[in-house]
Structure formats: structure tokens, C-alpha cells
Amino acid sequence: MNTELTPTVNSNPIQIGKILCVSTIVAILLGVGLGFVFLKNQQFAIGEQIRKTERKIQQIHAENEVLLAKVTELTSRPALQARVKSGYITVVNITSDKIARLTPPVQATEDGILRTAFNEASRQ
Amino acid sequence: MKFTANTRIGIACGIAASIFTLFSARLIHLHIAKHDEYSRLAAKKHSIRQVIQARRGMILDRNGEILATNLPVRTVTADASRMKKPEALAKLAAKYLGMDEKEILEKFCTGKKYIVLKREVPEETAVTLWNAMQEQNLRGLYLEQDAIRIYPNGEVLGHVLGFLNHEGKGVQGIELSMHDQMAGKDGYRYIERDRTGREIVLYRGVEEQPEHGKNVRLTIDMGLQSIVEEELDAAFKEYNPETANAVLVDPKTGAILAMACRPCFNPNEPGKAGPEQMKNRTILDMVEPGSTFKIVVASGAMNEGKVDEKTSIFCENGRFLYGGKILKDHHGYGNMDVHQILVKSSNIGSAKLALMMGGDKFYEYVRRFGFGERLGVELPGEIPGLVHPPARWDKLTITRMPMGHSIAVTPLQITMGMSVIANGGRLMAPRIVQSVETEGGEITMKKNPIVMREVIPEKTARFIGEALVGVTEPGGTAAFARVNGFQVAGKTGTAQKVSPTGGYAAGKYVVSFVGFMPAEDPRFVLLVMLDDAKIPTNINYGGLIAAPIFSRIAERVARQLDLAPTMPAIPFQPTPMASTTTTEERSN
What we know:
The complex is a heterodimer of chains A (124) and B (588). Chain A has 124 residues and is mainly alpha-helical. Chain A is 59% helix and 0% strand. Chain A has helices spanning 16-74, 77-86, 108-111. Mean pLDDT of chain A is 78; it is low at 113-119. Helix content of chain B is 35%, strand content 21%. Chain B has 20 helices and 21 strands. In chain B, the strands form six sheets. In chain B, strands 2, 3, 4, 5, 8, 16 and 17 form a seven-stranded mixed beta sheet that branches. Chain B starts with a helix and ends with a helix. Classes of the chains: A mainly alpha (124), B alpha+beta (588). At the A-B interface, helix 1 and helix 2 of A face strand 3, helix 5, strand 5, helix 9 and helix 19 of B.
């Protein structure tokens, strides 16, 4: 039997091992690339959040300062005195232990002498 | 010559390798050797230096009451190169900023990258505008941080606080003198923006945080300041003088507790005030002090041993011929001791004390009391006054200067001079800044009381102080200065006003009263001075005009300071009304 008649099959065998190796490398590179892009996106997103938070903090700070300025203006002496005069707020009596008692001033009208100016009564 | 295939492949590969090697070398050169240079260039192109503004420190009174603070506002800017719909943006901006739409659109059409639309936009308005812009998906407007300075008390203490110019720099008062401490240091950050103009946080560069300004705490007590301002206001309305001043000082420490001038101005609106209104006259004006100056000659003569408590001086019955001119007293007095000379405010007695001392010694005491020098208060522009040395005196100067003529001093100098008597003979440096503090309240600089010099011994100061108590007692020139419940020491001053054209202005007087209370242990020295009060000449005296104002202020200050009364109520004795007299007679 002539075994030589059977032609030799010139095959190109698939080298699964190599393919797997290359695929793995490509997959890894792809993963790294995607990971890099994902991380970069994450960083941008976090950056955006930081920016928004900073803006909010800044705004709250500014609002706080505006309120502080308003409180300062409303509690300033001229503002309070105007409110006392308008009767909007009243002055509460001081307890007697906190009062330094002065002897009552002599009023200009009491002794009948004309003075150019003397204490509170002379203004009226 | 024939190359084999392998040789050709080798040559081709070699050339390619060489080319790539060259490129690689160049890349390495650019990336490593030239890194800094190109980074800088790239940064210049894309980075923006964003300024982070430092907050200006506040001004507080001694109890922490806010006298000057900041109100955050925004500056609305636009970048025409980043706009998508300029018309819609202009319409929106016009609505919220209260501007003309066409005007805004014209600005946008310039295509400029930095257009200032409006400054000092309230925070709430700016935020509303921003939100509306986001809702409509518009871009091209930006909000920059800014702040305006506000003074909640308006005109009160305006001269002391001062104000800022449009660049945020102090122009006057504490705002100017303490600018370096309050201004702080702006920070910065290098940022990059995307095509819509938003910052890319990932590419943030170098950053330096701002150093916020420090708070300045003053020695001023707003409780006392408002009393002084209120009374000075009332006096200003009643007498309509050209100017009025009041200074309240703690004689033991030199701390200025209150300082007020009229006319005044509102530092919130400095543009509405004239230069005359803005002048802090307590340190910038010089006046002839009048008889308040007699304390200097009396102290000097006592201290030099030229006279003692019992030395009798003949006061020439009211007419003293010296240097070819007659010096007059308000009344004719005979023999008087130093105590009586001060109580009666004798011009002749004072002149004789100066003559006993001699010009040089008298001048030495004038200078030792702080006249003719800047006392160093932390306010800008303080003037030294005008005190000529004896070499420049004429024959009459030695008799005129003791009664407060031929000399020009500031109201603050008079107050500090009286403090010398009140505190036992020491000239204290006046202070208006108590401390400098961080935002957290940590004190970085504390100003302690400074004794400039020992002027006279305590014994002499006490003697003069006792004589000054007599001034406010019945028979003295300032009985109206009394405060019931307290012993008051002080001295009146009435000086004819110097005319700008030379000589004295007829019928115009500077009247003053400077005193301290309680006389036994003084807690404050107060000066009240009115320049050219519009009242009849025969009542335009320090004892009749300034002394009652002193009394009113002192009474309220005593309540505010919670001083315990030390004296029983004394029935009030009026002083005789003055008659029209000459300049020299008037010096009481």
C-alpha cells in the first residue's frame, strides 16, 4: 500500500495559547485604558462637585456676612435709639443694686435764676 | 554592488531606528530638559490667576461693639467671547441689575473678554441673577467677590474711624493709620477654564490662601461716645458755633474714651461731605487756649519754688503796665495766692508768676506739658501746635502766654495737659488703639499706657487740682460746671479768635472748659470747646457756655461709669453775669 499517495495536509494550526496571551494583553491594555478614562471622568465629576460645594460654602459665607452686617446695623446705637424714641421697643428698668444713685440736680426753674444752659431741664 | 535582502532590511530598519531615536531624543529633551519652560508657556496660555480676596478687619470699641465692618457685594462682569445668546443675556442682566438693555448689548457687541457691567451688586441680587442664568442655560456672565465698608453708627465717631477710597485703601482716621493691620493679604489660585468658562478643578495650579485682616479694638467706649455726641449735638444746635469739640480721656492711662467734633460727616457717604466737615479738629485744629493754660504757669512756679501755697502776689488792682501795654483783669484784685489766682483766673497774677519763673523756665514747662509737640495718638495728621521759643518772643509774650495767648495748641493737647494735673503729674501718651486681634480674638498687639514724662511732682499736681476744685465752687469762674454728688476740678478758657487776616476777630471767641471728676480720684478728664458761638457777647464765656455742657456730659458719664457720689447735694450758686470786656479782660 502506497502510503505516499495521501498528501500531507499543509495546515496552519490555531495557536490558542498565543491568541489567549495576546487577547489577555489587549484586554489588560483595554481595561487599563478604560480604567484610566473612567478614573479621569470620575476625577472631573469630583472636581465639579468640589467646585459646586466651594461655591455653596462661599455663598453661605457671604450670606452669613450680609446677615452679620444687617444685625450690626439693626443693633447699632442710632438704630436702637430711634426705635426707643418711636416706642417700638421699651427700656426695662435696671435692678436697684445696679443703680448709682446721684443726688437730684437742682433745676433752673426751682431757684428762679436764668441760666444759659443747665442740665436736662434747661432744654425744655 | 548588490545588497542582499537581509542587508536591505537591515539598512531600512537602521534608518527607521535612527529617525525614531532622533524623535525620541527630541521628545525626551522637550519633556525633561525643557519641561519648566514649556509648562510656563502652556500655563500662560491657559491658566488664569484668580485672586482670593482677603477680608478687611473690623474696628471695634473697647467692649467689642462693631464700629466698622464689611458687607459682601458682587461685581458683575461679562466675557463676550463665551456668550451664546447675547440678546437673551442682555435682557436678563438688564432685568436684575436695573440697567438699560441696549447699553448692555452694546457692551457685549465689543467682543471684549472682560466687561464690567455693574459694581456693588447686593449678594441676593447677584445670586438670583446667577440662578436665572443657569435656568435659561445662558453663559458669559461672572460674579466677582467684592465688599463695601459700612459704619453702622453713621456720623457717630466718623472723624475717628475715617473711610476708604474706591480702591479699598484708608483715607482718614483709623482706616488710614491702621490700614496695614486691617487690610490683610489677598491670596491667589491658578485655574483653567473649559470652553463654557467653568473652572476645571482637576487642573488647579499653585494656590495661596488669603491672610485676612486683623480687627482693631479702640479705647473708645461707645456708651460714653454717644453721650458726648448727643450733648455736643444739642450744644451745636443751641449755640450754632463754627466748630465744637469734646474729648474724654482716662487720665491714668491716656486712653481716649470719647472724641467728637462738629461739624461732622457720615463715613458711609464721604462724597457728600466737604473737607471742613471731615476735619478731626481735636488733633488738626490749633487754637489759643485762653485761661485753661494758666495751670501750666501755676504748676511751673510752684514746682520751681518761686512761690508756695502761701505766697502772696499783688495783682495791681486789675491794671498792670508791662512792656508799654496795660494788662487787665476781669475784676480788680489786690493780693492773691496761687490758689486764688487760679480760682479767679487772674491774668495779672499768671503773668507775674511767669515773670518770676523767667522766659526759659516757663517755656520749659510749656514743653514739658506736651504743648508744641505731637503726642503720638494713633490718628493721622496730628499737628504739634505752635509754641515759639523764648528767642522769638517779643516783650509782651511772657505776660500773654501764661493766660493762653501767643500760643496755639490742639484740643487734645489741652486735655492731656489737664490729665497731668489729674493723674499726679505724669504726661501720658494719648491712645486710641487698645489692641489688634485676629479674627479668632487672639491679641497680636496690645498697646499699654505710656508715661511720656514726669512733668511735676504729685504734691504740686494735688495742690493745683485742689485750686481747680475752687474754680467750680461758688465764687469760681465755672460754678456751672458742677455736678451734684461729685467734686469737680477744672478751668475755663475764653480766648478771642485769631483772625485769618491777622490780629483778633472782633466779637468772636473760642470758649472752653476742661476739667476732671471726681476731683479726689479722677476717672476722666473732659474738654468741651466751642468756637464762635452765636450768642450775645456778654454771655460768651467758657464758664457760662462750655461749663454747663461739661456738667451735663459729666453727670451722664458718671452714671455710665457707675461712679458712687461722694458729696452731698449743694444748692447751686450762680456766677455773676459777665459784661462786655476787652480781649485781655476776657481771658478767664
